[in-house]
Automatic annotation (TrEMBL):
GO terms for cellular component: plasma membrane. This is Hemerythrin-like domain-containing protein. Residues 8-146 form the Hemerythrin-like domain. PANTHER family: BLL2471 PROTEIN-RELATED, HEMERYTHRIN-LIKE DOMAIN-CONTAINING PROTEIN.
Length: 221
């Protein structure tokens, strides 16, 4: 049986993953053409990451799911400790990223433009790699463990909490107040030809992203 809370977690992972990959691709395209990115769109994309994955998704895992899995083995507790540290680090990292984007935007008409672009792109790459690795651990180690050890009462509690408090863009039609945000993000991605994966992720039709076999490591830029 697939539990609602696991469906929500996986859909939210697909959305975050599609968004991170899309921002990276968008930046690469603008660098290749020597053009400035659409700062309003980039700001909207980072706002999405800050507003939902950072403020809704990760706290749900740290506060509701992980405590139910603790105390079963030293190894699993160590993995959960690392994932909790990642969640705390992510909150600081998104602030740093938003500041770097503001710096790039504000200074883009000056001699500092390329230095600011380099700084923002480097932080963005680190943030994306960091969360993709984090979600891979959750999907290959933590979610399968939860499926094998949690009882019906624990699932009922988790399912209720995860369904009540979910990303308003992930896996279904965007909630009304967030439709303009969704349109801004999709319009920006049309320009770099990567709109498909984000749409699939947001509408819940994207394929599962993580398997037990880790993907090849990306070469360092
Ligand atoms: Fe997480
Ligand atoms: Fe997660």
């Amino acid at each position: 049986m697939t539990h609602s809370s696991l469906i929500v977690i996986r859909q939210e992972h697909r959305c975050l993953s599609a968004m991170l990959r899309s921002i990276t691709l968008l930046l690469r395209e603008h660098r290749r053409h020597g053009t400035l990115p659409d700062f309003d769109a980039l700001q909207a994309m980072l706002f999405y990451v800050d507003e939902f994955p950072e403020k809704l998704h990760h706290p749900k895992e740290s506060l509701l799911l992980f405590p139910k899995l603790r105390g079963r083995s030293v190894r699993i507790d160590a993995v959960l400790d690392q994932l909790d540290r990642d969640h705390a680090h992510g909150e600081c990292a998104i602030r740093e990223l938003e500041h770097a984007l503001l710096g790039f935007r504000t200074m883009s008409g000056t001699v500092q433009c390329e230095m600011r672009r380099d700084n923002f792109e480097q932080l963005m790459r680190h943030y994306a790699d960091f969360y993709l690795a984090h979600m891979r651990i959750e999907e290959t180690q933590i979610l399968p463990l939860a499926e094998s050890v949690l009882n019906a009462d624990e699932w009922a509690e988790l399912d209720a909490a995860f369904l009540m408090n979910r990303d308003p863009l992930a896996g279904h039609e965007a909630d009304e107040p967030y439709k303009p945000l969704f349109r801004t993000i999709v319009a920006a991605l049309h320009g770099c030809g990567n709109v498909g994966s984000v749409l699939e992720a947001f509408t819940g039709t994207a394929l599962p992203m993580f398997s037990d076999t880790p993907p090849p490591r990306r070469p360092r830029p």
